[in-house]
Design brief:
39% helix; Arc Repressor Mutant, subunit A; 5-stranded mixed β-sheet; 309 residues; D-Maltodextrin-Binding Protein, domain 2; elongated; 4-stranded mixed β-sheet; alpha/beta
């Protein structure tokens, strides 16, 4: 069924005047007549009744008009939404990111992006979680893209050919100690200074645990692990109440009157953050625009200045 024939039918039903409808549609009267005849043949019912030179809707036409009107309205709405999605200056961006990135990188880049011209009609939906949760949702196409760590498997299933990991920024790993700890007055420490202290560690299933283990291995230290937890702020909570010290990603908004963050001397291990995309997924121009902005922002404000997040 030709959608143009439905548009012609709706216009003729409204005017119930062949020449007027043809003029409104910008087509010839024979073209309009042919289209209506063709539509009636396909449906097997008369849509109009002819009374001399006048026409009016038949009872079949009155019923059909209601459905045609609703259907064409929905198609027009769909066209408008697609037009918006394909506009680089409009649209909705669904972005997922790990918890620590919400302290600085995400609000910082969103603020800078919204100062650019023609961004007022671009909206964001933001989601936080751990790497496994975010990547699982990305595979289910709940997000446009994700900022997270890199993993090779998800729930025991390889994801190498399903997701594309693009390195975007590096995050410093720091030592968290209670504010009244003897080392808290220093800006940086060597790991040998805390080798015997109880450690609050990430759970073995967390990507950060692999990095923490590598740092201690490089320093030739076997850490004294007291508790294993899953989330950054839980680690710092245990540190605050003198349950141990912890190695954590940099937490810029942490209240350092309660927990002090110290640089680790001679440590080359950093937390690499990736922009993760699902392979072969169409991205709207506004999503691509923000991704390019985010990539350039990280290069200009961090990588080129040799700064870590």
């Amino acid at each position: 069924m030709n959608i143009k024939h439905l548009v012609y039918f709706r216009e003729l039903a409204h005017t119930q005047h062949m020449s007027q409808a043809a003029e409104n549609l910008g087509i010839s009267q024979p073209t309009l007549s042919y289209s209506i005849d063709n539509l009636e043949k396909q449906l097997g019912v008369p849509l109009f009744e002819h009374e001399g030179r006048n026409i009016k809707l038949s009872r079949f036409g009155e019923i059909y008009l209601k459905f045609v009107t609703r259907g064409l309205d929905e198609i027009q709405r769909g066209d408008a939404i697609l037009e918006q999605l394909l506009n680089v200056n409009e649209g909705n961006i669904r972005m997922g990111f790990t918890y620590t990135l919400g302290q600085k990188l995400i609000p910082e880049t969103l603020s800078a992006f919204q100062k650019k011209a023609d961004t007022e009609n671009i909206s964001f939906e933001l989601f936080q979680g751990n790497t496994n949760e975010l990547l699982d949702s990305l595979l289910k196409e709940k997000f446009d893209f994700v900022l997270s760590s890199k993993i090779d498997e998800l729930n025991g299933v390889p994801i190498k050919n399903k997701l594309n990991f693009l390195p975007i920024i590096q995050q410093e790993i720091m030592l968290a100690v209670p504010a009244d700890h003897p080392l808290a007055q220093q800006d940086s420490v060597e790991l040998k200074d805390i080798a015997d202290e109880p450690l609050i560690a990430f759970a073995k299933t967390d990507h950060m645990r692999t990095l923490i283990d590598e740092i201690f291995t490089n320093a030739g230290i076997v850490p004294n692990i007291k508790y294993e937890v899953e989330e950054d702020h839980t680690l710092t909570g245990f540190v605050q109440f003198h349950q141990g010290i912890a190695l954590v990603p940099n937490l810029p908004q942490l209240d350092q009157t309660k927990v002090k963050l110290l640089h680790i001397k001679n440590n080359q291990v950093v937390h690499q953050i990736y922009m993760v995309l699902k392979n072969n997924r169409f991205l709207t121009p506004s999503v691509s625009r923000f991704q390019n902005f985010l990539t350039d922002f990280c290069k200009q404000n961090y990588k080129h200045q040799h700064k870590l997040l």
